[in-house]
Amino acid sequence: MAMILENVAVLNVNAPTEVLVIKSPQSEVFQIAYASFKDRGFDLTGYDVILLETEQVWMVYYQPSDSPRGQRGSAGAKGFTVEVDKVTHSVIKSYFAR
């Protein structure tokens, strides 16, 4: 049995591109840090979020998007850092970054 398709448009469908993978427990760290960031009255608009780590601490750095690459801080907005303990997942401290 043959099917005849008339007036059928074939759409050019592009598959989604993977942009970011956040692994557990990093996703939880972002949630914990964001709560501290938000409590200070910040909005994520205009910030890049950077995750750094040492052996004991996750550091989530909220960097103004207008900061030159490799440079911390901005002439306009303040950077903000939240340090989270890797074992207890509690905020050690949060502070404005220079």
Structure in words:
There is one protein chain. By secondary structure, the chain is an alpha+beta fold. The chain has a single domain (26-97), classed as Nuclear Transport Factor 2, Chain: A. It is 14% helix and 30% strand. The chain has one helix spanning 26-39, and strands at 47-53, 57-64, 79-85, 91-97. Strands 1-2-3-4 form a 4-stranded antiparallel beta sheet, with helices on one face. The longest helix has 14 residues, at 26-39. The protein is globular. The relative contact order is 0.18.
Please supply descriptive tags for the structure shown above.
98 residues, alpha+beta, Nuclear Transport Factor 2, Chain: A, four-stranded antiparallel sheet, 14% helix
Q: Briefly, what is this?
A:
The chain is an alpha+beta fold. It has a single domain, classed as Nuclear Transport Factor 2, Chain: A, CATH 3.10.450.
Secondary-structure topology with pairs:
Elements: H1 26-39, E1 47-53, E2 57-64, E3 79-85, E4 91-97
Antiparallel strand pairs: 1-2, 2-3, 3-4
Number of helices: 1
Biggest beta sheet summary: 4 strands, antiparallel
What helical percentage do the residues reach? 10-25%
Beta content = 25-35%
The top level CATH class name:
Alpha Beta
Gyration radius from CA atoms, angstroms: 21 Å
Give me the side-by-side strand order of the main sheet. 1-2-3-4
H/E series: HEEEE
Mean pLDDT rating: 83
E-strand count: 4
Secondary structure category: alpha+beta
Shape: globular
- What is the name of the CATH architecture? Roll
